[in-house]
Each structure stands twice: as C-alpha cells, then as structure tokens.
Amino acid sequence: MSTGIGCRNLRVYAARRELLNVPELDVASGRTLAVLGPNGAGKSTLLRALGHVSSHRVSGEILLDGRPATRSQMRDAVVAVLQRPIMRRGTVAANVITGLRFRGMSHREARTRARPWIEALGLEPLVDRDARSLSIGEAQRVSITRALAVAPRVLLLDEPFSGLDSTTRADLLADLRAALTGQPTATILVTHDRHEALALAEDTALLIDGRIRQHGPTAEVLDRPGDPDTARLLGYTNLLPPTLTGGPHTVVARPEHTQLALHGVVESDDAWTVTGTLRRTVALGVATRVDVDTSAGPLTCLHPGDLLATELPAVGGEVRVRVRQARSLATSDLVAPGPFRSADGE
Ligand SMILES: Nc1ncnc2c1ncn2[C@@H]1O[C@H](COP(=O)(O)OP(=O)(O)OP(=O)(O)O)[C@@H](O)[C@H]1O
Fold first, then answer.
1. Fewer CB in a 10 Å sphere around the end CB: N or C, the chain?
2. What is the pLDDT of residues 282-305, one digit of tens each?
3. From CA 206, how far away is CA 221, in angstroms rounded?
4. Is ligand 1 within 6 A of the CB of residue 48?
5. What are the boundaries of each domain within the chain?
6. To which CATH superfamily is domain 4-222 assigned?
C-alpha cells in the first residue's frame, strides 16, 4: 500500500463556480511536491481541501496512505505552515514545543523531542527570546521548526517564504530541505515562485485556473512549458509566434536569453534577431530590463548589470533584439536559432 497523501476526483465549488478540479494527485511519504501557480490559481483552495478544512463545498476523496481519510484522521496527520507565522506568547523554545504539547506530550519530553529540530534549523541563539519580538524571517523559521518537531505524516506549506527577503528565503529553504531529507513526511508546498519549487521539491505540478496542467520531476516541468500560460508561469515570458519566426510553431524564450544588439558588441551567429521599438528601460540593480514592442507583440530583454544610458538607444528608437535560446511550445524542445534567423526580413 502506498503511504502519503493523495486525492481522487477532488472538486471544490463556491456557489456555482468550480474553483478546483483535480482528478488525481499523490505525494508519497518522504517526498515533496511543489504546486506552482499564479495568483488565484486555486493553490490555497487545494491545500485546504486536502487538509479537510475547506469552507467550500468539496466532492471527491482525500486519501491518507491509500485509504479515504476522515476529517479527524487528517487533523492528526497534517501540520500546516501559513504565509504569516503566528507566534504565541512566551519564548521561542515554548513556541517550538507547542505542537507537541497539544498532542499531549509532557513538557520535558516535548523539549527533548524538539531539541534536534532546534539545532537543525539553527534556532539555538533565539531559544530564550520572546517569540513576539522576532522578525518575520525568524518567526517563520520558528513556525517551520514547530511543524517539523511534531514529525507530521503530512506537511502543508502555504507560501511560507513569500514575505522573506531573498537571502533569508534561500537559507530557510536550504535548511528545510536538509531537515526533510530522510523523514517519512509527505510535503506539499504551494507557491508562485519557480525558484522555491527548484530549491525544495523533487516533483512539481503546475496549477492554472484550478486544474493541473503539468506534473512531473521539478527540473523537467520547469523547463518544459506546454502552452502560453505555463510558459508565462515558468518565466518564458517572450512569446514568438510563427508570424515572427517563420517557423511552424510558437516558440518561447526567457528574458535572460533575450538581449538588445548593442553598438560595438561583436555579434556571433548563434542568435535569431528581430527589430522593434524600445518602449522603456528599468534598472533592477543586478540587471537592466528593456521592454521592446515588435510587430508580433512585446518582448522583454534582460541585460546583466547596469546598462549606461549612453549605451542605450532612446525610447521610441528602433532596436534589434537577439534571442539566444528558445523552446517550441508544441514540443517543449529547445529550438536552434538557425531555422528562423532573419525571419523579420533582415
Ligand atoms: N468564497 C468564494 N467565492 C467565490 N470565489 C472564491 C471564493 N473563495 C475563493 N474564491 C476564488 O477561488 C480562486 C482560487 O483562490 P485561491 O485563494 O485558492 O488561489 P491562490 O492560488 O491560493 O491565490 P494567491 O496566490 O493569490 O493566494 C480565486 O479566483 C478566488 O477568487
């Protein structure tokens, strides 16, 4: 019998509107699934339904270790970590053992159980601090340690990293991944950030409009956009239709593989070029974003570092854009730039 959490024919409705329709989903014990979707895709709706805590009308089956699970069975099996950490009155140490105390464990035993998790998550320097004085990043670390200390069969993570700065987020993701390794917990992370999926999850499902469009090993799913919606979600925001490429299918490219052809830069032969009008530039610190309008729609270029104003053509001026790497939406394969070079008639 398979262990872990799953569902069959799961549907969630608000009034007459169907918010979610997932025919089948399984996360085995010891594995982590990321559910990646844009705002409003139904990610939280899915987590609440799986945890049997939905306030909507739900049909279908929630499975625990392969069998339909009741609400009380799920309550015992599941621990959730939410976007905003909730700290109770008292020290960090007292907060970490809360879940164990709720489950009837003595104070002494709970402290002994929690100790390795406090070490694994690097919380020792904070244990005596008033939990309500913590930063959001610190509080989320406590909240995750509290969840892990219970050794749950199922861990549901509802965007717990979204309010953290990039360094804090990367540290916590790495520590959580290490802490989960070898544990018999089935973990589901919902997020809109593909980098979080890559950092934490072996498998990823793409959820759009309440339906799973793609599902598989994370590295494969993140690099195999199958339609314009999943392409956008996966960062392939530049859509190049056949009218632009001259090829048979729409191809998609990441902004980091798309750059302006600038004066004085020697161009190699390994990119396809298209002309357009420079709409605006945005300094992002580590990179400069340049938006260009072309005959077949907008393209976004990303140049590493700061581009000097003197290097850039004026807004409204004609520019050439080079796309170094693109994928076919029909096959998800990388498309060599050769076949559609000079498709715009250059
Ligand atoms: N009571 C309700 N009545 C009607 N629609 C609802 C109701 N509750 C939620 N929805 C809709 O369900 C959809 C999914 O919401 P949900 O919060 O699950 O999305 P999400 O993917 O978690 O989004 P976000 O990333 O913005 O948190 C949204 O379009 C939302 O407006």
1. N
2. 988 888 999 999 987 899 999 988
3. 8
4. no
5. 4-222, 231-340
6. P-loop containing nucleotide triphosphate hydrolases (3.40.50.300)
